[in-house]
Each structure stands twice: as structure tokens, then as C-alpha cells.
């Protein structure tokens, strides 16, 4: 009861009142009655259109001739095929191979691991082979431990494989691909009657399914497999999905309050725009557009950062707005300049935190494996396809030099987009004070630091985390997410403080965990300074969530050297406090060289990490430890891999300082406790006393 009251206080009155009413409606059976299971007949469907048709054949013939403009036309097939062969000179067989696997019911999950079905089951968790009961969706719990992670069940029903099937069809003209598309669609609607089962629980999932269905419908509309009966079935399901999303939208808007409300608005807008003959099309289009505007401006902060504190969720928003902006342009509609400008800042934030060599970003925040429009052969972790497409939609220019990432642009924006001017933006050291990100960039490396006071629901307890990249390798990494419904120890490791490159006090997370997606006692942080001159870049920030103690982190970057100073000070209450500094490595080869030095082996060089402390310390490296969860990372949802994690522990009753230096091995590093300075070759860095206004004595 106490925890419930704390949640209500943390989340606010509006959220609390809505959830109370929603749960009451569910318990009283009103919600189930609002969404009654019903099979829509053709007659009922035709009554819901503004067309005077009575047969499937009439509708099929008319829609082929009068369909709303989409990203491509079936007549574009030859041109797209030619461009695909030029973009994928050695990779077209990979696309075909994956599509052939799909034809054998072998599906790619979360862009990384496969599940082979003898008989497709849309209601089963493929990890534990437990099937969710086919009951009304209201009566299925999202995080029911009886069947495990609901995302493992939802993934197949997003129909992400449609995009691969379409790509393979364009490359080969093989009839088996549209045949498989329709086979899977008909199987799905046969096994998922309206409002029955787990796949109706989430309007966002329904939106992504609609998008995939529509993409395939436009690609295969002229193919013999697209019969009047099949097309009518699909239009009925699209109508029912949009109607459900509309009637349940308040849950996304007032309870979930994140990317769900953007995605579901996009679903309504898409259906209303592309199928104007539906009787509710105008309502869906206007409502969807209204909330795409309002929620986009609310959720994407004015500095381009995102309220969910997650790189991958921000990429999802990029994909959604690329989709709706381009559809709007194709259909002579438009969104506000303010929203366009906000999405430009959104793209630039992600771009500025992107590794130049790999296209990857820090694995920061919740990473649920979402890649809703997989239209390029780049790895899931490479953001170039999505950022390039949004940048073109917003500016008419490409963001990167030519490469395989441009296939995504080809599909969404057409052949001419591949000839657009290239507008490579300069990456720079930059602060994002509203979201609380501080990026330090130099030629060979960059770092991203977190320092913010949350105004929107936090996802992970990771304040003052440092993500460090060096020549394309993620030297200090974020552990990622792994799963939303794993055991509590793993869940707390991946989402809590212990997996992040920051400091823990007394083995406690920086915030208090209430429910799986809710933290209490949101972190309060303060930026002390962030600046760059010709020789150094400095960040200094602190948080007070371990009150009455303060954790202050200061970072100085000079040439090929990173110096991280962690100070702990405040009221120790005459008791020993335990301080635990952790560094999770994104590379596999890390070994201890001497008492305070560890070697980090990269592809073609070695970095050294040296630690100095004002107190006696104990250290250990964990790699895939299971007794106490340590030394793991997850780059793809549902997959975890062992990773070296260095943990430095000390106990102290007084102000304490730990200094970490990361640099190339030829540099000589020393620390003088007596003179309070760090020596790097012939460069002397003077430090203030612990608890002073600043740490580095640099003008």
C-alpha cells in the first residue's frame, strides 16, 4: 500500500485518476464490453465505406485504379530493382536467403535470432514454448510470469518480415514471396479473431502491423495473389485495427505517455489518409495528425533529446515521423514547421552521438529491439538508414555518403532521392541541457555523459554514466536491456545502477524501484560546468540521490587522454560508507597489468586504464557472473553476452576521491596525492580539494 501511494505521488494526479478509472472499468467488465469480439461481414464493411459497392470484385478493381499515393508504385518495380542491385552488389543474396527462410517459417526475431516453426503459432512464447490463452485481451496481463516476456510473443505479429519479402520479390520477381505474404496474413486473421488474444492488447503493436500490411498490399496490389477476397479481408482488418486504436487511444495518451501515443496517432493518420473512403477516415486522419503534432512537440525536447531517455526509442520516433511526413507529402498534406524543426534537432542529436565508422550509437536507455521498417541490410545497431531517410524528408538532402544504408531511402522516398545533394553535418562537442546529455567529440574518440534532473519518467538508474568510443569500438559501454520480463536480479542489473559506468553507494541503486517500469525518488542532478577550449574539454556534474552524500563526477579530455574524477563527499554520519565504481567494457580483451593498471585490447592498439584513489581499494573483473549478476551486456533484445566488468570497492568515513585515466599505452600517467595533481607525460593537471566548487584547476 505504501509503495502504491508513492507511485501515485510520483506519477501525478492526472495519471493516478486515469489509471484508477481504467482499472475499475476493467474489473467491472465495462472495458471488455467496449471491445466486443465480432466478425465483420462484407456487407457490414461495405456499409462502413463511402462507396456504393456490393462485391469484392468492384472494390478490388476500383481501389487498384484510385488508391491514394504511397511511397512507391508497382510500376516503379524495375527502377527500384536496378537501384537495389547497384546498392547491394554483394548482399542481394543475403536478402533472398532471409526471405527464403521466411517461406520455410523460419523468422528473424529482433534483428538477431531465429525461430523455426513447424506450424506457426501467433500466441506462443518461442523462448519457453508457453502459449497464451485465446481469451479477450482485457483478461491477459502484460507481464504475466506464466508465459514470460510478452514481447517475444508480439514480435512475429508485427509482421516485420513483410519488408524482407517485398525486397526479395523486387530482386527476383519470384511469385512465392507474394504467395507467402498472403498465406501469413490469412493465417493470422484466422488465428486472431477480433479482440481475442494477446495481439490486441497494445495499440502500438497494432499500428506496426498495419504499416507492414499496407506496405505489402501496395507492393503486391498488381500481383495475381492479391485477389479481391484477400484485399477485402485486409481492408476489413485495417479498418478494425484503426477503430480499436482510436477507441483505446486514451490509454496511450494518458497512461503510457511515451512513444505509444506517437505510434498510435501515426496508425490512425495513416489509415485515414490512405483509405479516405472509410466512414471514419476523416476522424482518424484529423485525430492522428493532432496528436502527432502535440505529442511530437511534447516528447521530443527542444534540444532534440527525447523524454524516454533511450537511443533506440528515439530512433523508433524517427522512423514513425519519416513514415508520416513522407506520406503527407505524397498526399498533399503537411505538418507544422515547428514539428519539422523539432525532428531536425532530434535527428541531429542522434547523429552527433553516432560513431562515424560503424553508424552505431551508445546502447543507452531501454533497447527493446524495435526496428519497425527494416528496409536496408545494415546491422540493427547501425542508425544510418533511418537518420538518412528522415534528414532527406526534412531537408531534401542526404546525411551520409552513398552506401547500403540508402536502400531505406530508396523505398520511402523514391529513386530520385538517391541523387540528392549530400549534407554531411559536422559532429561536435555539444551540450543538450534539457535532456541532460553532454557529448565530447575529438578525432579518434567521443564520450557521452548523462547529467539531468528528470522531469519525465526515468527508465534506468544511470546518472553520470559515461559511454566511451575509440576508433569505432565501444570501449566503455552501456549494458542495454536484455528483457522486460526476466528474473528480478537480471532485470535490476540491466536497468539499475550496477550495470552502468558510474558509482554506487552502499550497493543501492540511485533510485528506488517500484514496478518494472516505474522508479521512485527521481534523480536530481546539477551541472557545474561544461566547456571546451583549444586544449581541453571539461565536464563537471553531480547528483544528490545518495543524500546526505553527493557523488560528483568530473571528466577532462585532452588529445588521446580521458581523465575521470569521482568525488564522494557530504555527511558520512560517522559511519563507513561503501563506494563501488564500475566500468563495463564493450571489448572482450581486458587484463590486469599491475596493481592499478588494466590493458584494454582493441583491434589494432591497446589502451590503458589506470585508477588512483585516496583510500585503499579492492578490485575484481567479472565476466558473465551469475551468483551475483555482473559482467553482462545485451546489444539485441533477448540476447545477453558476457562482457568484462571492472568493479573497484572501498569503504570510507571521509571525503573520498577516485581517479580513472584512460589513454594510449605509450603515455606515462602518475598521481600525486600530496600535491593533488595528475601528471600525463609533461602535462600537469591540478585538482581542487574534494567538495570545492570545481575539481579541475583549469582556467
Describe the protein in words:
The chain is of the alpha+beta class. Among the domains are: 34 residues, no CATH class; 131 residues, no CATH class; 257 residues, Beta-galactosidase, Chain A, domain 5. Helix content is 36%, strand content 22%. The protein is built from 20 helices and 28 strands. The strands form eight sheets. An eight-stranded antiparallel sheet has the order 13-14-15-16-25-20-19-18, with no helix packed on it. Strand 14 and strand 15 form a beta hairpin. Helix 11 runs parallel beside helix 14 and helix 13 packs antiparallel against helix 14. The model has no long low-confidence stretch (mean pLDDT 95).
Quick structural summary:
With 699 residues, the chain is of the alpha+beta class.
Could you outline the blueprint of secondary structure elements for this entry?
Elements: H1 2-11, H2 13-27, H3 30-34, H4 42-47, H5 56-66, H6 77-87, H7 92-103, E1 106-109, E2 113-116, E3 124-125, E4 130-131, H8 150-157, H9 161-172, H10 176-191, H11 203-220, H12 228-247, H13 249-256, H14 259-274, H15 281-299, H16 311-330, H17 337-352, H18 384-395, H19 406-413, E5 430-432, E6 437-441, E7 445-450, E8 466-470, E9 473-476, H20 488-495, E10 503-505, E11 512-515, E12 518-520, E13 525-532, E14 537-543, E15 549-558, E16 561-570, E17 577-584, E18 590-594, E19 597-601, E20 606-613, E21 618-623, E22 632-636, E23 639-642, E24 644-652, E25 656-664, E26 669-672, E27 677-680, E28 683-686
Antiparallel strand pairs: 1-2, 3-4, 5-6, 6-7, 7-8, 8-9, 10-17, 11-12, 13-14, 14-15, 15-16, 16-25, 17-24, 18-19, 19-20, 20-25, 21-24, 22-23, 26-27, 27-28
Helix pairs in contact: 5-12, 6-19, 7-9, 9-10, 9-11, 10-12, 11-12, 11-14, 12-14, 13-14, 14-15, 14-16, 16-17, 16-18, 17-18, 18-19
